[in-house]
């Protein structure tokens, strides 16, 4: 089965292969006076051999040359020599995508952006004409990330769509287009193309994995589990499939199974920061905060610049600090650690709503209601879809004695889809405040 990142190669060419044979001549006595005929026949055979040899030579000359020498030149930064020879190659082999790729790289690395763009345009033109093999489509689609940075996401997706339409019978273009839509968070489109890729090539491991992830985003959990199981049937030690199962179980609130799946995947791939993060988040949901902290710290060892993990670690410290709140004040050291993690998250991702909400909750516990209101209103202005922000803002207003504003914040909270216990608490608070 193919895994992500395996570049398909161009199909071998079978040019010049001929089927032939010889016919045995019956023995017999040569007729006198016919020697000139035999000599002529012999001469004809010799001439035919010369013609055939010349034809083979021409055919050999037109065959695709080995690119290893050109690749070595580019790797050695001998760009001028490589460019001259590769220009000749692509003129004779206009559909040879790998040669275009190497020529584009030579121009790009030598700083000749104009010609690099020209070569990419030539390759795209060949794509529109349907003249590329699977290797060509693969390379063209791989340019998505670079094009995305230079031309913007919309143009990048447009180029990917052209490629996928031109190679509608190939799995690889559909797979990469599906990946692009997934990264853009257009999950319906992602599922459409990833499903096509998996249908065209049932052994395409990465297509099944990313299809499963897009199904998780749509909360189609049974279908997502089926994709993970398809991969595990072929590759029982595929860590990503175990991680996908962990996500499925987590969203299904089967936390024990999720923990087992993440742990099994981490035995196979202990260096996955994302898996440590997700395992930590699952421990958080079952309120095993010590285990959650351990996983978040492991994730940050592997990826110290991830704002999500810093936020989650801060939220865990905050929950630990609030344990025993009825008996005594929150643990100051843990509260300080929570603030530190929230601030680090905001340094990495300014105006991150979750981190702002976390800071707002800290300020509420510390009695600094004005600071809480400030950061929570900032969070709502950046992302009003978080019900937690509205609830915390209502609490800050209530505790600061601003009943009218508290009622308005509770109403905004209740207008959203929220857990039943939170809804009940908000309704009780509104009743005590005498909200209309």
Can you walk me through this structure?
With 436 residues, the chain is an all-alpha fold. Helices cover 73% and strands 0% of the residues. Helix 6 (134-142) packs parallel to helix 9 (171-183). The longest helix is centred in the first third of the chain and has 28 residues, at 35-62. The two termini are 63 Å apart.
Which helices and strands occur, and which strands form pairs?
Layout: H1 35-62, H2 68-75, H3 79-92, H4 97-109, H5 113-128, H6 134-142, H7 144-151, H8 153-166, H9 171-183, H10 187-200, H11 205-217, H12 221-234, H13 239-251, H14 255-268, H15 273-285, H16 289-302, H17 307-322, H18 332-348, H19 353-366, H20 369-382, H21 387-399, H22 403-414, H23 420-433
Helix pairs in contact: 2-3, 3-4, 4-5, 6-9, 7-8, 8-9, 9-10, 9-11, 10-11, 11-12, 11-13, 12-13, 13-14, 13-15, 14-15, 15-16, 16-17, 17-18, 17-19, 18-19, 19-20, 19-21, 20-21, 21-22, 22-23
């Amino acid at each position: 089965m193919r895994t992500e990142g395996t570049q398909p190669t161009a199909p071998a060419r079978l040019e010049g292969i001929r089927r032939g044979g010889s016919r045995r001549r019956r023995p017999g006595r040569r007729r006198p006076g016919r020697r000139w005929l035999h000599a002529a026949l012999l001469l004809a055979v010799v001439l035919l051999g010369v013609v055939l040899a010349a034809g083979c030579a021409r055919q050999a000359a037109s065959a695709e040359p080995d690119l290893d020498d050109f690749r070595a030149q580019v790797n050695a930064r001998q760009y001028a020599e490589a460019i001259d020879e590769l220009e000749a190659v692509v003129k004779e082999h206009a559909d040879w995508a790998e040669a275009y790729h190497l020529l584009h790289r030579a121009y790009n690395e030598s700083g000749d952006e104009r010609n690099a763009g020209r070569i990419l345009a030539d390759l795209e033109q060949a794509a529109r004409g349907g003249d590329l093999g699977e290797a060509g489509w693969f390379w063209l689609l791989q340019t998505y990330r670079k094009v995305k940075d230079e031309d913007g996401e919309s143009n990048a997706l447009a180029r990917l769509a052209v490629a996928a339409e031109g190679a509608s019978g190939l799995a690889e273009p559909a797979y990469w287009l599906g990946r692009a839509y997934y990264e853009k968070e257009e999950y319906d489109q992602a599922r459409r193309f990833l499903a096509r890729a998996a249908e065209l090539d049932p052994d395409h491991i990465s297509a099944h994995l990313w299809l499963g992830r897009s199904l998780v985003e749509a909360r189609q959990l049974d279908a997502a589990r089926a994709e993970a199981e398809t991969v595990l049937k072929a590759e029982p030690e595929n860590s990503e499939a175990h991680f996908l199962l962990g996500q499925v179980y987590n969203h299904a609130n089967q936390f024990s199974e999720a923990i087992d799946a993440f742990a099994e995947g981490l035995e196979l791939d202990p260096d996955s920061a994302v898996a440590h993060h997700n395992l930590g988040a699952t421990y958080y949901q079952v309120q095993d905060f010590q285990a959650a902290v351990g996983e978040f710290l492991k994730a940050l060892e592997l990826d110290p610049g991830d704002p999500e993990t810093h936020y989650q670690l801060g939220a865990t410290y905050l929950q630990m600090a609030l344990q025993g709140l009825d008996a005594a004040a929150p643990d100051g050291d843990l509260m300080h650690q929570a603030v530190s993690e929230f601030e680090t998250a905001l340094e990495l991702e300014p105006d991150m709503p979750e981190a702002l909400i976390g800071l707002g909750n800290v300020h509420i516990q510390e009695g600094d209601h004005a600071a809480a209101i400030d950061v929570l209103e900032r969070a709502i202005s950046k992302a009003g879809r978080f019900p937690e922000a509205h609830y915390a803002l209502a609490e800050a207003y209530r505790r600061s004695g601003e009943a009218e504003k508290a009622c308005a914040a509770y109403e905004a909270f209740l207008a959203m889809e929220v857990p039943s216990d939170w809804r009940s608490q908000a309704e009780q608070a509104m009743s005590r405040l005498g909200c209309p």
